[in-house]
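Need residues for this backbone.
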């Protein structure tokens, strides 16, 4: 079946190969595989997004994302989605933003919404909205979501697995992601200081007051000669940092539904040290591909022990569990089943206690 899929990214973060956010990276990878597989890929994203298929560019990210600004952009975004769907003759619309319910287009087309964030972060009414099909990105998240006849089995995230990883001197700890309070990156700096190791923090501070206040209050005062904020990394620089890092630190304070950075680190042979939030304990084999720790002191101890983790084993696990090919194949199958109007797929049984 030749598909015409319209992916809709979060309106306040650019999608593309060098995107900072996990959801935006998933959008870009689906866009790429659709184009590479001979399907028609349409992407709706904010100004600055990049696409392998057709790009319908929305408004630029404003310097201050207020409630009123959101209302205006949601209205514009909804109209843009509807225009793209009609003009490009889309078969299915795939929504990815946490706020997707604000701009669901008026259409008879089938709509899939992927829940990239904790289920409780979405309004309760989406779980029984007959306009939507839904899917989670991990078993852990799926089992935490409200029961719904509209929920498909989870489709775990996947990442590219490098064929070869350059051997580098591993002399620092690394942390990557959107710079915001719930990611707890100040704990990464503190743990690295206790462990006596350099730490680099890569990511972007988006124009939300809470994010900017967090950076100014918790990150900026900790930056010194041994702890550095290096800003957003493109794909090439990110790969080099992964390969050179002694370990990746994931001190998240919220129930993570998945972790692309953890998967990417393991794909480069770099162990992951994380707090036990959400799906993270299911992604990391404690003592084998990294360590699950409960506080800064334990994270510091784990950093000092991270050299015992086998890079080859980390890469083998990533290849087996987290490949991009597995993820994209499951989305293509879901697209075909939804478009063909099959009967609703029964909820998958929870595999996480």
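Answer:
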């Amino acid at each position: 079946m030749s598909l015409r899929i319209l992916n809709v990214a979060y309106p306040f973060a650019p999608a593309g190969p060098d995107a900072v956010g996990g959801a935006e990276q998933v959008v870009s990878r689906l866009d790429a595989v659709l184009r590479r597989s001979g399907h028609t890929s349409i992407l709706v994203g904010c100004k600055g997004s990049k696409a392998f298929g057709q790009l319908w560019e929305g408004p630029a990210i404003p310097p201050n994302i207020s409630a009123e600004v959101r209302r205006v952009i949601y209205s514009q975004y909804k109209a843009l989605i509807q225009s793209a769907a009609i003009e490009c003759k889309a078969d299915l619309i795939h929504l990815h933003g946490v706020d997707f319910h604000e701009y669901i287009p008026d259409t008879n087309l089938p709509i899939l919404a992927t829940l990239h964030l904790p289920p409780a972060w979405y309004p309760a009414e989406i779980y029984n909205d007959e306009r939507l099909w839904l899917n989670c990105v991990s078993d852990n998240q799926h089992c935490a979501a409200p029961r719904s006849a509209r929920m498909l089995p989870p489709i775990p995230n996947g990442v590219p697995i490098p064929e070869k990883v350059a051997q580098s001197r591993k002399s620092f700890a690394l942390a990557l992601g959107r710079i915001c309070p719930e990611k707890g990156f100040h704990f990464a700096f503190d743990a690295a200081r206790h462990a006596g190791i350099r730490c680099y923090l890569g990511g972007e501070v988006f124009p939300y007051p809470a994010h900017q206040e967090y950076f100014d209050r918790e990150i900026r005062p900790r930056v010194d000669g041994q702890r550095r904020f290096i800003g957003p990394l493109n794909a090439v620089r990110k790969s080099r940092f992964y390969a050179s890092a002694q370990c990746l630190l994931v001190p998240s304070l919220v129930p993570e539904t998945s972790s692309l950075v953890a998967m990417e680190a393991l794909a480069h042979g770099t162990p992951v040290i994380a707090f036990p939030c959400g799906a993270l304990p299911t992604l990391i084999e404690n003592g084998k591909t990294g360590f699950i720790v409960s506080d800064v002191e334990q994270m510091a101890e784990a950093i000092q022990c991270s050299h015992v983790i086998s890079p080859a084993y980390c890469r083998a696990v990533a290849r087996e569990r987290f490949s991009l090919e597995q993820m994209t194949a499951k989305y293509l199958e879901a697209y075909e089943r939804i478009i063909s109007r099959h009967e609703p797929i029964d909820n998958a049984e929870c595999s996480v206690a």
